[in-house]
Design goal:
- Helices cover 43% and strands 15% of the residues.
- The chain is α/β, with parallel strands linked by helices.
- A six-stranded parallel β-sheet has the order 1-11-8-7-5-6, with helices on both faces.
- It is globular, with a radius of gyration of 19 Å.
- Bound molecules: nicotinamide-adenine-dinucleotide.
- Keywords: Amino-acid biosynthesis, Histidine biosynthesis, Hydrolase, Methionine biosynthesis, Multifunctional enzyme, NADP, One-carbon metabolism, Oxidoreductase, Purine biosynthesis.
- Residues 6-120 form the Tetrahydrofolate dehydrogenase/cyclohydrolase catalytic domain.
Length: 286
Amino acid sequence: MSADIIKGKELAHKLKEEMSKEVLFLKEQGLVPHLTVILIGDNPASKSYVNGKKKASGETGISSDVIEMGVSTSEKELLKKIQELNNDQSVHGILVQLPLPKHIDEQHVIEAISPAKDVDGFHPINIGRMITGKDTFLPCTPSGILTMLKSYDVTIEGKHAVIIGRSNIVGKPVGQLLLNENATVTYCHSKTTNLIDFTSKADILIVAVGRPNAIREEHIKEGAAVIDVGINRLEDGSLTGDVDFDAVFEKASYISPVPRGVGPMTITMLLQNTIKAAKGLSKSER
Ligand code: NAD
């Protein structure tokens, strides 16, 4: 047996084409979805993520701008800028690129963004809405993973989903989304003993650890669907995930690759949230 490859990049491309049509339609009605990204400092990885978001926005016709602020920007200055953007009717989505310099409290920043413009889906109000199964901005990576599973007709209801990793941006919310879809969910993390006891019973295995080859053939149940969220840069500069792809490919029924897997879907979900924010705001005319 060998797995079907869940091609995130192809799926993202298809979704972006559909979104372009929707954006065109909105523009004809006089609504131009707009995303503002705030970048603090000059972290090269953050810069590259921000460039990717700007490029993808442009490809779908969403307008965007990047506000670059120096590394010594105070928390007060940043919160003031966010307040201005909250009050700016032409801005539909606000994203502050994380991580932030140590002197700025990330949580204060997340909570300062209006929940109606929180396209990252990190505001506690939106997290609460997600947990209670209400319509909201879903966090981008978890929502991308769910979209990948659904697009490939992976059955979720009644299945055992095992999540490895419990970060607030990936592990915890993706487990919640799968629970909302009626999976039985188990969380594993750095303090889990006998990881293999859990992973080997997983029908759906989501791996978000950040270590190459953390998951190997022996961890997998025959026929499982495996989603690799990890992004690890090797010494030769290439990117790899957390899963030993070649070995697991032979045993799983579905597997997502790295690169061209979850990564492109994350940005695509950000665009989807921006369009949603624009439509929501237009309705309430705020
Ligand atoms: P993190 O880096 O904050 O934490 C890692 C998690 O792995 C923790 O919850 C920890 O408990 C768990 N862990 C560590 N060692 C473990 C072990 N031996 N056994 C079981 N669990 C273990 O997590 P994150 O921010 O969710 O990132 C995880 C990975 O996903 C990173 O490689 C990151 O770059 C990547 N990532 C990718 C995307 C994307 O769009 N593709 C988005 C976010 C994160």
